[in-house]
Amino acid sequence: MQSASPAPRYYAVSWDQLHRDSKALAWRLVGLGKLKGVVAITRGGLIPAAIVARELECRLIETVSVVTYDEEVRGAPQVVKPPSAASDGEGWLLVDDLVDTGTTAKVVRALLPKAHFATVYAKPAGRPLVDTFVTEVSQDTWILFPWDTEAQFIPPIARSTGP
Ligand SMILES: O=P(O)(O)OC[C@H]1O[C@H](OP(=O)(O)OP(=O)(O)O)[C@H](O)[C@@H]1O
Ligand code: HPA
Ligand SMILES: [Mg+2]
């Protein structure tokens, strides 16, 4: 029998993997040349942006914050902190952890139309909005980031099968 809705797929990313994937992103971006600075899309873009900025020897980091959820309900995106230092984005690198529906990306691209937009992970709906990314995952996959997860005890299989 098929269940009404399929079990969600998860793609769990460890700190090590995030570091490796963010460095892989930096390798793809090194050809951009000298940057004026990096704009991190908070909060998820902060750690990838720090890793990429370190690899590209860029010390100037600006942030932009877009809130799209209000108490778990998706609402109209609100820019709660604009990237004022980056003007129209020319010469700046914009970094986020992932692009999913593309909602955040659309808002930020409109603020910084000349920035190069890079994410570590991309889902198909948002991929056309990204200039450079590392790994694509399917739209129905939820990426579990290390800052959202923690290790926990799982009972042995034999205990769940019963006598
Ligand atoms: O393409 P979208 O559908 O807009 O989804 C992608 C955005 O969603 C997540 O951020 P979130 O808004 O959950 O906030 P956070 O980074 O502060 O966790 C993620 O870090 C991206 O910024
Ligand atoms: O797949 C995801 N994982 C974590 N946060 C997210 N925000 C939008 N999509 C995702
Ligand atoms: Mg985010």
Give your account of this protein's structure:
Keywords: Cell membrane, Glycosyltransferase, Magnesium, Membrane, Metal-binding, Purine salvage, Transferase. InterPro entries: PRTase-like (IPR029057), PRTase_dom (IPR000836), Xanthine_Guanine_PRibTrfase (IPR023747). It is found in: Cell membrane. There is one protein chain. The protein has 163 residues and is of the alpha/beta class. It has a single domain (9-146), classed as Rossmann fold (3-Layer(aba) Sandwich). The chain contains four helices and eight strands, in the order βαβαβββαβββα. It has helices at residues 15-29, 46-55, 103-111, 157-161; strands spanning 9-12, 37-42, 61-70, 73-81, 92-99, 116-122, 135-136, 141-144. The strands form two sheets. A six-stranded mixed β-sheet has the order 4-3-2-5-6-7, sandwiched between helices. Strands 1-8 form a two-stranded parallel sheet. The longest helix is centred in the N-terminal third of the chain and has 15 residues, at 15-29. It is globular, with a radius of gyration of 18 Å. Bound molecules: 1-O-pyrophosphono-5-O-phosphono-alpha-D-ribofuranose, hypoxanthine and magnesium ion (MG). Hypoxanthine (HPA) binds next to β8.
